[in-house]
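User: Design a sequence. Structure:
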């Protein structure tokens, strides 16, 4: 049971890393366009998913 939980948290962590990377590329693509709300939203989502990836990895290491 414990190993299944670790695998699940590992998959969640990798998913968050993937989403963070996706929004990083979206942010870089939008950087010079002047679409301020879209740029800010992409940057905020990138940061949120990166923090969630770190937190889920820490939870996996602690447990």
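Assistant: Done.
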């Amino acid at each position: 049971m414990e190993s299944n939980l670790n695998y699940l948290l590992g998959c969640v962590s990798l998913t968050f890393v993937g989403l963070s990377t996706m929004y990083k590329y979206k942010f870089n693509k939008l950087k010079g366009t002047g679409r301020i709300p879209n740029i800010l939203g992409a940057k905020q989502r990138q940061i949120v998913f990166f923090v969630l990836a770190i937190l889920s990895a820490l939870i996996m290491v602690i447990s």
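The mean pLDDT is 91. The helical segments are 2-30, 36-62.
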